[in-house]
Amino acid sequence: MRLSLYERLKPEHKQTLANRYSNMPHLHHEIVRVLSYEEFFTEVKYGIAFDVVSTCDLKFFGDAFED
């Protein structure tokens, strides 16, 4: 069985997202929920992907995850 995106999310990005959205728990919960459900980053909606990329200062959404 393949791991979810949240399980594969690099620990430093989990921490960055938790810190950034600490005052917006509903948004943080939604990001975690979506990443916990999906197995492929191409299935994540643009808004969630953009939040991860911009918050974690990435150039490519796929870079947020361990191989």
Describe what this molecule looks like in 3D.
The chain contains four helices and no strands. By secondary structure, it is an all-alpha fold. The chain has one domain (5-64). The longest helix has 13 residues, at 25-37. It is globular. It starts with a helix and ends in a 12-residue tail after the last helix. The mean pLDDT is 96.
How does the SSE layout of this entry go?
Elements: H1 5-8, H2 11-20, H3 25-37, H4 46-55
Mean pLDDT, rounded to whole units? 96
- Main β-sheet description: none
Order of helices and strands: HHHH
Q: What portion of residues is helical? A: 55-70%
Count of distinct strands: 0
Query: Which secondary-structure class do the elements indicate?
Result: mainly alpha
**Number of self-contained structural domains:** 1
Which short descriptors sum up this protein?
single chain; 67 residues; mainly alpha; 4 helices; 0% strand; globular
